[in-house]
Design a protein that fits this description.
Length: about 140
């Protein structure tokens, strides 16, 4: 069943806009689905319009799968993913260093506590008691 003259006119106008790169209702990709959306008709209607479809196939020998905007977007996404991978690797490295520093700090604290408990004079002189550290530093 062929399409009406009005529908064919709408399809041809939509095809001209898409081929000229001035779409009004789509992203501009040269696909039959976008032709239908641009014309405001169903996908099935496009396939019933045999003459319009033949002209479309002749004009668009190989459909463009992505628009230039989509290509730029995909390249930016790839760049951001690489940056994210690098940042995550940096965070992992820093977490490892932080864990190592926490272990060293815990060992030093333990050794300090043992030294404070030793009887006799300290080789470093009088050390403040642990509960007075940080007091009066205002």
């Amino acid at each position: 069943m062929p399409v009406s003259a009005t529908t064919e006119t709408r399809l041809r106008a939509a095809m001209q806009r898409l081929l000229a790169g001035t779409p009004e209702h789509t992203d501009g990709a040269l696909t039959k689905e976008n032709l239908a959306r641009e014309a405001g008709v169903s996908h099935a209607t496009v396939h019933r319009a045999a003459t319009v479809l033949a002209d479309w196939d002749a004009a668009v020998a190989r459909p463009v799968l992505r628009t230039p905007g989509e290509v730029r977007r995909d390249e930016e996404i790839a760049t951001l993913k690489r940056a994210l991978r690098t940042a995550r690797a940096d965070v992992t490295t820093l977490h490892g260093k932080l864990d190592a520093l926490a272990s060293v700090t815990a060992n030093l604290y333990h050794e300090n506590t043992l030294l404070r408990r030793r009887p006799g004079p300290s080789p470093l002189g009088a050390l403040p008691a642990p509960d007075t550290l940080g007091e009066g530093s205002d």
